[in-house]
């Protein structure tokens, strides 16, 4: 009988130890899950703040550019285009730049992926003025750091323009190979 009680205590003790170990593991798992959820929440918060800052920057860019388009005396502050280009054409370049920057910021904010950006730009480059703007702004793009995302997008667009120029079809919407993300 004493042996049976001793065995029962040992089994009870082992069961209690197993129960405590299981509870400890479950508690650790809950803490890991909570930590992961908190990290995810913080990452999403950071993304939201970044998108809000990009949207604000785009709004400011547009407001400043709109003033330059409306007032040639203000345009002189940011006008880096060749002075032999007529003032009206330079105003069109400012407007083309506004559209390009708008699309670029949609991409940076994650609203457009690279393929969608490419497709929109392929359409914009059907405009002779937009093509002239791109050529006229080559020196500005050359100042970008080669490894920057913006410089990479510029190289992608340069390739698109080459593909459009070399295409032997009027079906521009199928020209080039959109990048995949």
- Determine the oligomeric state from the structure: single chain
- Using only C-alpha atoms, the radius of gyration works out to 30 Å
Total helical segments: 7
Shape: elongated
What is the strand content?
Answer: under 5%
Structural class label: mainly alpha
Low-confidence segments, given as residue ranges, are none
Question: What share of the residues lie within helices?
Answer: over 70%
Biggest sheet record: none
End-to-end separation: 73 Å
- Give the helices and strands as they follow along the chain: HHHHHHH
- Strand runs, count: 0
Averaged pLDDT:
86
Please, could you describe this protein's structure?
The chain is an all-alpha fold. The protein is 78% helix and 0% strand. It has seven helices and no strands. It has helices at 2-70, 72-78, 87-108, 114-124, 128-136, 138-142, 149-166. The N and C termini lie far apart (73 Å).
What keywords describe this structure?
181 residues, mainly alpha, 7 helices, 0% strand, elongated
Structure in a nutshell:
By secondary structure, the chain is mainly alpha-helical. The chain contains 7 helices and no strands.
Strand and helix layout:
Layout (H helix, E strand, L loop, with lengths): L1 H69 L1 H7 L8 H22 L5 H11 L3 H9 L1 H5 L6 H18 L15
């Amino acid at each position: 009988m004493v042996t049976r009680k001793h065995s029962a205590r040992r089994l009870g003790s082992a069961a209690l130890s197993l129960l405590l170990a299981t509870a400890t593991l479950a508690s650790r798992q809950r803490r890991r899950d909570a930590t992961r959820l908190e990290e995810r929440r913080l990452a999403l918060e950071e993304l939201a703040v970044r998108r809000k800052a990009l949207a604000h920057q785009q709004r400011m860019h547009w407001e400043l550019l709109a003033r330059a388009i409306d007032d040639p005396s203000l345009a002189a502050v940011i006008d880096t285009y060749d002075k032999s280009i007529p003032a009206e054409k330079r105003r069109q370049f400012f407007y083309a730049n506004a559209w390009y920057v708008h699309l670029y910021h949609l991409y940076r904010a994650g609203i457009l992926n690279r393929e969608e950006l490419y497709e929109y730009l392929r359409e914009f480059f059907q405009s002779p003025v937009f093509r002239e703007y791109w050529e006229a702004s080559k020196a500005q793009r050359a100042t970008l750091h080669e490894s920057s995302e913006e410089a990479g997008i510029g190289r992608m667009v340069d390739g698109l323009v080459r593909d459009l120029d070399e295409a032997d079809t009027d079906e521009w919407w199928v020209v080039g190979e959109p990048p995949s993300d």
